[in-house]
C-alpha cells in the first residue's frame, strides 16, 4: 500500500508533463480560430420565381376547357348539362364561347351536388358533369402545367395533364397525358 500512492502520483505527474500544448482558458482564441477557418458564402443572385398573370391564367384555362369539351366524356351517360368550375365572369365568357355545345354549359348555381354521385341539373333533374382546370406556376422553360379534370360521381372521374406554351400572344397545348 505504501508504494501505490507514490506510484500513482508519479504516473499522474508524468502524464501531465508529456503534453507540452498550452491549455487555453479563454473563448477568444477559439472564436478567432473559428472565424479564420470559416467559409464565407458570397451572395448569389436569386432568380425571382416566375408568376403567371391573371390574363395568362384565364387564357390557359380557356384552352384546357376547350380541349376537355371536345373529348365527349358525356356521350354514354345521358348527361343534360356541363358545369364548369371557375369564377362567374370566366364561366359566363366560356358559356358564350361554347354556346352551341351539347350538352349545354350552364352556370354552377343550377347544379345540385351530392357526394360520390353525379351532379344533378336543377333544370332537368338529370345527371350532369363538372369540368375543372388547375393551373400551376410557370416552369423554368416558361411552359405551364395544367390539370384538366372531369367529375360525374365516384365512378365517372378522371383527369388529363397538360403542358402549355405561349406562342406569340396565345397559349397552345404542347402535350397531353
Can you describe what's shown?
This protein is an alpha+beta fold and 177 residues long. It has a domain at 54-176. It is 29% helix and 28% strand. It contains four helices and eight strands, in the order αααβαβββββββ. It has helices at residues 4-18, 27-36, 54-69, 88-97; strands spanning 81-84, 105-106, 111-112, 119-121, 127-138, 144-151, 157-167, 170-176. Strands 1, 2, 3, 4, 5, 6, 7 and 8 form an eight-stranded mixed β-sheet that branches. The protein is elongated. The N and C termini lie far apart (88 Å). The model has no long low-confidence stretch (mean pLDDT 82).
Helix and strand topology:
Elements: H1 4-18, H2 27-36, H3 54-69, E1 81-84, H4 88-97, E2 105-106, E3 111-112, E4 119-121, E5 127-138, E6 144-151, E7 157-167, E8 170-176
Parallel strand pairs: 1-2, 1-5
Antiparallel strand pairs: 3-4, 4-5, 5-6, 6-7, 7-8
Assign the structural class, choosing from mainly alpha, mainly beta, alpha/beta, alpha+beta, or little secondary structure. Answer: alpha+beta
Rounded mean pLDDT is: 82
Distance between the termini: 88 Å
Number of strands: 8
Order of helices and strands: HHHEHEEEEEEE
- Provide a count of the helices: 4
Shape: elongated
User: Main β-sheet: number of strands, strand sense, barrel status?
Assistant: 8 strands, mixed
Taking Cα atoms only, what radius of gyration do you get, to the nearest Å? 35 Å
Low-confidence stretches: none
How helical, in percent, are the residues?
25-40%
Estimate what percentage of residues fall within beta strands: 25-35%
Amino acid at each position: 500500500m505504501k508504494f501505490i500512492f507514490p506510484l500513482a502520483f508519479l504516473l499522474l505527474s508524468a502524464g501531465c508533463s508529456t503534453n507540452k500544448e498550452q491549455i487555453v482558458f479563454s473563448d477568444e482564441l477559439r472564436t478567432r480560430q473559428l472565424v479564420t477557418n470559416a467559409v464565407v458564402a458570397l451572395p448569389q443572385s436569386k432568380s425571382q420565381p416566375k408568376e403567371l398573370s391573371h390574363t395568362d391564367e384565364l387564357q390557359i384555362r380557356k384552352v384546357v376547357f376547350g380541349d376537355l369539351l371536345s373529348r365527349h366524356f358525356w356521350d354514354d351517360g345521358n348527361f343534360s348539362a356541363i358545369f364548369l368550375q371557375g369564377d362567374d365572369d370566366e364561366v359566363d365568357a366560356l358559356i358564350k364561347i361554347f354556346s352551341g355545345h351539347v350538352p349545354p354549359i350552364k352556370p354552377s348555381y343550377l347544379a345540385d351536388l351530392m357526394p360520390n354521385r353525379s351532379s344533378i341539373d336543377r333544370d332537368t333533374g338529370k345527371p350532369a358533369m363538372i369540368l375543372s382546370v388547375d393551373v400551376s406556376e410557370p416552369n423554368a422553360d416558361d411552359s405551364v402545367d395544367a390539370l384538366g379534370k372531369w367529375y360525374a360521381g365516384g365512378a365517372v372521374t378522371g383527369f388529363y395533364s397538360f403542358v402549355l406554351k405561349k406562342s406569340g400572344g396565345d397559349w397552345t397545348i404542347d402535350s397531353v397525358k
